[in-house]
Design brief:
Blueprint lengths: L4 H11 L2 H4 L3 H4 L3 H14 L2 H13 L2 H20 L5 H20 L12 H4 L2 H8 L1
């Protein structure tokens, strides 16, 4: 059950996986993007209270860990928006997660600089540009 704290801790462990954090992760781990897609989908499908618990834990961890989580999500956002054949819902879920991380960063007094949350692929997204034209 996702309301059990022991089960929720798995998400923190997954974000600490060395294969997700390696500098050349896509070469080391060909399933990198698929694993991230599944991880982000699982996070998105958690009940609201479970998400709140998980993000409260994340706020208490060292800033380096938080920065690595942001970096991993950023990598997936870029992949989901720039690679042909990617599902738009994958990009949406990852951008929403990035927004949540941005909100957490503000709650923590801005431990990461704002530029860590900027994603060129999002800014250049045709969907986003079309949204602003409406």
């Amino acid at each position: 059950p996702t309301d059990d704290p022991e089960n929720l801790c798995v998400f923190l462990v997954l974000f600490e996986n060395p294969l997700l954090l390696a500098e050349h992760r896509t070469a080391l781990f060909p399933g990198f993007h698929r694993a991230l897609r599944n991880l982000i989908a699982a996070l998105s499908s958690l009940p609201r209270e479970s998400q709140r618990q998980l993000f409260n834990w994340l706020k208490r961890l060292p800033s380096e860990f938080f920065g690595r989580v942001v970096d991993v999500v950023q990598q997936f956002v870029t992949f989901a928006l720039t690679q042909p054949g990617q599902n738009a819902s994958d990009a949406s879920a990852s951008v929403l997660l990035l927004q949540t991380l941005w909100d957490l960063n503000k709650e923590m007094g801005g431990i990461l600089p704002e530029w860590c949350f900027h994603n060129t692929a999002v800014s250049q997204s045709g969907d986003l540009q079309e949204h602003y034209r409406q």
